[in-house]
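User: Teach me something about this protein's shape.
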Amino acid sequence: MFPNATRQLAFDFSMTRKCLNRSHHELNAQDVAAVHQKRVSSFLSMVLQDDVSVIFTDNRTTMISFKRRSGVLNVRLHKMFQHADDIVLKALSVFIRGIPSIRASKKLDEFIKSNQTQIRSRTKPRRQPVYPEGEHFDLNEVLARVSERYFAGATDGVHIGWGRLRKRRGRRTRTRSRALATYCFEDTTIRVNPVLDSNKVPAYIIDWVVYHELLHHILPVEKSGSRKRYHTEKFRALERAYPQYEAARLWEQQNLDWLLK
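Assistant: First, the predicted structure itself:
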């Protein structure tokens, strides 16, 4: 299928050596990546006897993926494979072919493990500022009261604030959301819907909303396959333990429409 593959591969390797021997002033990171991309593409094309196109990525979770498109086998590899030697690339070709091979799998696992430092770590999202003082309720006071009364104060690190305002048709309006509040697991922040900052809202309703979100903070998320369960049986049981649970649910049902219209 590829009568000139060996000749082309030798040419590509020759060009690779010449390019990599150039000074760093002449060759930047993009040039190096392009050279290795050509080298790995040519190697896999020869071994697999196929038309292969390689792209290097900076993916944190997927080190190897491939898909045929328009007659070309598109292989996406983590950038660590720029420096893979022939043995690793041969193991990679076995993996791509789908041939069961403990030896090849072990070689790839060892290579990836030895290059773990090249996989960028997940950066913790920067916490957006939140503003707890409202016209009618100070959420810091609510958080302190609910935390002390129902959680023995064991809610350190939780931040709370009102939902943000947004621009809409040339004026600033309060964001309308169907949720009365949300809890962000990444930055441990409770954001309360600003429609609740009203003299029409009883204090026990604000307490109830914050109590619900604090349950998310203290209870782990259950995983079932690829699904996540936030409102588990234990969560619902603790939710019902709120002293004014029935009154809060009834008030919510009777007032949700005007709150969120």
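Now, about its shape. Confidence is low (pLDDT under 50) at residues 1-17, 167-176. Residues 29-48 form the longest helix (20 residues). If you'd like, I can walk through any region in more detail.
User: That's plenty for now, thanks!
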